[in-house]
Design goal:
It is built from seven helices and 14 strands. The termini are far apart. The protein has one domain (about 10-180): Glucose Oxidase, domain 1 (3-Layer(bba) Sandwich). The strands form three sheets. Strands 1, 2, 3, 4, 6, 8, 10, 13 and 14 form a nine-stranded mixed sheet that branches. Strands 5-7-9 form a three-stranded parallel sheet. A two-stranded antiparallel sheet has the order 11-12. By secondary structure, it is of the alpha/beta class. Helices cover about 35% and strands about 25% of the residues. Helix 2 (about 30-35) crosses helix 6 (about 180-205).
């Protein structure tokens, strides 16, 4: 039988070190986004499907399937390793879910760190019961199909960001960022500098001082604003 062109499943990929994952788990998404020039930040509509939800940090295990279809995602649950983050390209489809309650239960038992998708999910209560973080475009009761082809562990687009298997995914209450694996180690000192700078700012603000006002004033004057 001729194999389907483009229907590719890769079982494994290069993952970041556990030390690097633990380092990024201490960072908030806002600081990471700032140090990447506001790039690699997923669409704001991809949000936690319940609250409160614990933070997500782990290597991207990517899934690209037909919109509203979860055939490949079911296989991904089997292949993923503990600590992986399933990143599902849902292509913003709003007709069917790509993730559901039984999938959440299986993923939680497998030790999967979380799920990120620019598609829809369902069975929020079951997902919350097993404490699996899921960030999705939205929620619907409509079930997925199981008919499509697709790809596992290839380059995908999710939430407007190109994501490679092994990129570090960090998600919190502000949203989701994807740190390219090739840049992740080198970016750490820059994020730490950002954190230190903000800590110094916080001390000043708590002491009653204003920050960034002088630079803002200079920019306003350069633009010839009329101040009356």
């Amino acid at each position: 039988m001729t194999k389907e062109v483009g229907f590719n499943i890769y079982r494994d990929f290069e993952r970041p070190s556990q030390e690097l994952i633990e380092t990024y788990s201490e960072f908030v998404t806002a600081n990471i986004s700032d140090t990447m020039g506001r790039l690699f930040t997923l669409d704001y509509r991809i949000k936690p499907v319940y609250s409160p939800m614990r933070k997500v940090c782990g290597p991207a295990f990517t899934v690209h399937a037909r919109p509203g279809d979860n055939l490949l995602t079911l296989k991904a649950i089997e292949l993923a390793k503990p600590g992986d983050v399933l990143v599902i390209s849902g292509l913003y489809d709003t007709n069917n879910s790509v993730w559901g309650g039984f999938m959440s239960i299986m993923a939680a038992k497998k030790g999967i760190a979380g799920v990120i998708t620019d598609g829809l999910m369902r069975d929020v209560a079951q997902t919350q019961e097993v404490d699996l973080p899921v960030y999705a475009l939205g929620v619907t009761p409509a079930a997925p199909t199981k008919e499509g082809t697709g790809q596992i562990n290839t380059t995908i687009s999710c939430g407007g960001v190109v994501i490679e298997p092994g990129d570090i995914i960090v998600a919190d209450e502000d949203g989701v960022v994807a740190v390219p694996l090739a840049d992740a180690a080198a970016l750490v000192p820059t994020v730490q500098e950002k954190i230190a700078k903000e800590a110094a700012w916080m001390e000043k603000v708590l002491a009653g001082e204003l920050i960034a006002i002088d630079s803002a004033t200079q920019l306003i004057e350069q633009k010839n604003a009329r101040i009356k």
